[in-house]
Amino acid sequence: MTRYLQMNAKSLLTNPYILFWSILFIEFWVLMWAYIFGNYIPQVEEAVRIYTATAYGNLLMLSLSGASVTIASSLLYSSKSIRYVTKYTKLSPSRFLLENLASSLIALLAISAVMFISVTGVFFARFGLVIMPVDTIGLSFSIFLSTLFIYALSLFLDFLIVILRAPKSASFISFLPLILAFTAYASLWVDIKNAVYFSPFNCIVSVCYYYFSGQIPPTGNFLIQGEKILVNVGLAMASLVAWSLLLMILDVILLKKMRGVGVEEIRTT
Amino acid sequence: MIVSRDLYVTYGRSQEPVLKGVNGTFENKFLILGPNGSGKTTFFRAICALINIASGEIMVDGKNIEDLYATAGVLSTNFQEVYTLLGSNVYDLVRLYTDLSDGDPEFAFNMIKDLGLTLEFLRKRKLSELSSGQSKIVCTALALAMKARHVLLDEPFEELDPAKKGKMVKHLSEYDGVILVNTHETWLLKNLRNWGVFFMFEGVLYGPLLVEELLNAEISLADEADSLLRLSVSDKTVNIIRGKGKGTLLTSLENLDRIYQLAEGD
User: Fold this and answer.
1) Distance between B38 CA and the closest CA of chain A, angstroms
2) What DSSP string runs through B246-262?
3) Are B197 and B189 in contact (CB under 8 A)?
4) Of B254, B259, B253, B258, which is closest to residue B229 (Cα–Cα)?
5) How does pLDDT run across A46-79, given as a tens digit for each residue?
6) Nearest by CB to B86, which of A8, A84, A92?
7) How large is the ipTM?
8) Do B96 and A4 touch (CB under 8 A)?
């Protein structure tokens, strides 16, 4: 491994934009879940567990999507450098992706851990119960897979901007993961049925819910009472794996094709 | 060795080519002299594979640049845009890039200190927070510290005071490898006498000549049978001729932007 991995991880962990969009901004929603959305939840362990699982899955999805906005922006602004270093230094395109992925995963996993501590802590304060995941290993794997998907998506959107020569749309496209995450949020009140398997954001919620609570998640209407269609968790996991692999393959291909875009071409307002 | 064969570069589909059939072989140290907007920087960006080539090819040590990946020690440059991989301070940036290229960070730090910047200053500033002259010093030092066989330096003397220019010349002269320097400043001819020279005007490369041939050369609009070079400038032919007192001494021009005024007859 080169010095890049270590330095990039440090850079991401101390980036104020990541800290804001993936932690501080989401803390608002943690409090909303605990004190507004959860008003009707009885203080019974099973009910609180299911509610916490729902909250953690959705908040994790939003948090990682928030982080991806900054990861995507920073990669776009350094696209010329990426092009140059992958040609004229030891970092080949695949090695760059590997080290960038590893350092980004370190940051995203740290953020996931902070969110976990935040949710369990705030929910303990609200409900008086410490809720721990039923399957820690399964949840850890789900979080890892979720961070992998978010990273691959950020990279893909960046490379697309460069190759399509559309730097002026950089701001909008960089925020696309967060926009899509909030769109997926709608499943809290709407049953999206089989569409859940096509939406990797909803798949993140489903697998985290399952391993946190031990219960099979519904395809939607999380916060609505009544009969619900249940998710095939294996299929949701497979969908997330497929999306991640597809995007990573596209990332390697697009990395070799792109020439980078100058900072002066990227509209900042 | 860098070889450019019939290179065309355009920005946008319907625009006039910025580089028009550039042919050149670069094996030693060369100046590429040309006015602003002549295509020098575009040419360097093409060699670095930072822009698309419309047609033609560029070879470095016999390999097409499109096929080069993970080739540390082959090529380096002082374009600031290639040193934005991380938003860290300059000190860490130097350590990162020299690590990635198996270069020599102490060489970079010593050269930067020689050109008037302290390590303390570098630890407290990001590259984007430096003035253009300071940034040029850092990026040029980095380019040389990466110990590449081919170094492309785009206007390395711009924004430097005369004392620093002299030191920069010394560092470039001592470097062991192929160096191409883009500049529009003709004073360099007196300081780099054992270098070669190409000229670039309106996207066309002319040359090479030796610096020694140009020290007494003159610019003339009159057609001479034994011109060293004939340049096409604003649809006129400008001749570089041996010094006979018939034209304007090349080295008396502060920079080559003035050739346009001469071509208009000013």
Assistant:
1) 20
2) SSEEGGGSSBTTHHHHH
3) yes
4) B259
5) 899 999 999 999 899 889 888 888 888 888 888 8
6) A8
7) 0.91
8) yes
Point out the residues of chain A with pLDDT beneath 50. Answer: 267-269
Kindly tell me if the per-residue pLDDT of B13 is higher than 70. Answer: no
Which of B47, B65, B76, B84 is the best residue to mutate to test the A interface, defined by the most A CB atoms within 10 Å of its own CB?
A: B84
Per-residue pLDDT of B126-142, as tens digits, reads: 999 999 999 999 999 99
Report the predicted TM-score, pTM, of the whole model to 2 decimal places: 0.84
CA distance to partner chain B, nearest, from residue A84 (Å) = 6
How big is chain A by its Cα radius of gyration, in Å? Answer: 19
- Pairwise CA distance, residues A120 & B92, whole Å: 38
**pLDDT tens, A218-253?**
998 888 888 888 999 999 999 999 999 999 899 888
In chain A, which residue's Cα lies nearest the Cα of B46? A259
Size of interface A-B (CB pairs under 8 A): 93
Regarding predicted confidence, which is higher, B264 or B89?
B89
Which residue, among A84, A90, A164, A256, would best test binding to B if mutated, counting the most B CBs under 10 Å from its CB?
A84
Nearest to A63 by CA among A103, A133, A116: A116
**Is there a contact between B47 and B76 (Cβ–Cβ < 8 Å)?**
no
d(CA B156, CA B168): 8
Stated length of chain B? 266
User: Which one has a higher pLDDT value, A2 or B154?
Assistant: B154
